[in-house]
Design a protein that fits this description.
Layout (H helix, E strand, L loop, with lengths): L1 H40 L4 H14 L15 H4 L2 H10 L3 H23 L11 H13 L9 H20 L6 H17 L3 H16 L8 H20 L1 H15 L13 H16 L6 H20 L8 H17 L4 H26 L6 H8 L6 E5 L9 H4 L3 E2 L7 H11 L5 H25 L3 E5 L5 H7 L1 H6 L3 E7 L2 E6 L2
Parallel strand pairs: 1-2, 1-3
Antiparallel strand pairs: 3-5, 4-5
Helix pairs in contact: 1-6, 2-4, 4-5, 5-6, 5-7, 6-14, 7-8, 7-9, 7-13, 7-14, 8-10, 9-13, 10-11, 12-13, 12-14, 12-15, 13-14, 14-15, 18-19
Length: 503
Amino acid sequence: MTIQIEAETRTKRKDPAIAAAVLPWLALALLFAAALWLRHAVAANTDVSWLLTAAGKMLSGGRLYVDVIETNPPIAVLAYLPAVWLAGALGVQAEIVVDGLVFAAILGSPAIVAKILRTSAVLQGLPRWPLAWLGFAVLAILPAQTFGQREHIAVIVLLPMLALIARRMQQEAPRRWAVLVGGLGAAVALAFKPQFGIGLGCAVAASCVHARNWRLVATPENLLAVAFAALYLAGTVVLYPEYVTVILPLLRDVYLPVGLSLSEMPDRPAMSLWAIAILAAGLLGRRRSGAALLVLLSSSAGFAVVYLLQRKGWPYHSYPMLALALLGLGFGLAAYVPDGRFGRVWRGAALLLLAAVFARSMLWFDVAFDARPLQAAVARLGPHPAVLAISGEPGIGHPLVRALGGRWVSRQQGLWVATYADYLRRNGPLSPDREAALDAHASRERAMLVEDIRRMKPTVVLVDDLTGRGSAWLAAHPDVALLLKDYRLADTVNRVAILTRRD
């Protein structure tokens, strides 16, 4: 009888231990299921769709910046090449492979961060599972329609470097493998957009000030990141000279001058959401401002500067600053020790604030042009269309053409040069030199379009009078309109005319 009682007692003791071990993983699995569902609930990302199309053209023998015109550095397309190649080998959609690879990175990066900080004082006394859940949610759920964008990938690969910076602030030397991983991740982020160095640099500067040691600027991981970034820059100049001779002047003359004023940027939700998260995190961590919190908030502030400097106000540009601010708010909550009843109320209010800012940020990242109604109308015209869009809105043709298993009849994403040039002319007088530069870039864009139409012969042409003036543009350029004289109007969806060949 005594033996039976002892056995039952041991069993009862084991049950809570098993539950404590299983429940955290179950919560993570539920978050993963929600993230998977979200991939099918939101519209596909326009830029990711175009970059997959561009990567497919490269795998078919096209030369980047010659046969495939892209305004971003080479890694913007090269990063998606493995997914397109693997999708072809497996016979599945490239979007599925991209999602799978990004999810693998989302699971891998925090695991690396946890290993880097496992023996560190950075996370000492903090509840690790709640931080893990928040980290996964910020990387896998928060992005919504921004999932797989370059900013999203950059944050994922930067996290190990931020963990190294936090360790250095504690005067802790990391392992060699961690230095290599952190340096490579930072180099990838800098290759996507060199201005991301501002976000990284703010974190490094904060570590130097906190540790009162400016030698932390020249840590091995920092030097490794700079060396790889310099090697990538040299490779771009040597392997892709057209990026320097053609694309950079195009960016200087057309892309960079278009944007919101600094006074208009705060009107976007991103700035207010970021300010709320930063302020709350700072208040929570004022008594116990640990290395992790300081690194996250300083890096987030640097990325806020990057967002303002880009002046476009697009949601995905704000993802790094908001993601790091929300992680900072989570660390502030985890580190906060309530003092009395007021402290407990404040912690509960901060938790609700975190949830509210997360939800509103998620809605902000889901703001995008959705052409699925147009996609249904084009699908009725027949399978595998060869699609061309007379539009400066990339969402008109992408991801529509990929969703229909079609072919994009252009080496360009769209007529964005003509759209930007029209905007610049409507918003202020231009000097004769700038007028001439805009004319030259627009003429080159139109010449490529004419050549592509003759060579690839679209079966479906979309004329956008919803976001732009596609019909007026065709009327002003009879050389292009003449090539479309054998096309008839098949349908119109939300002021987008769908033309198809008469035969």
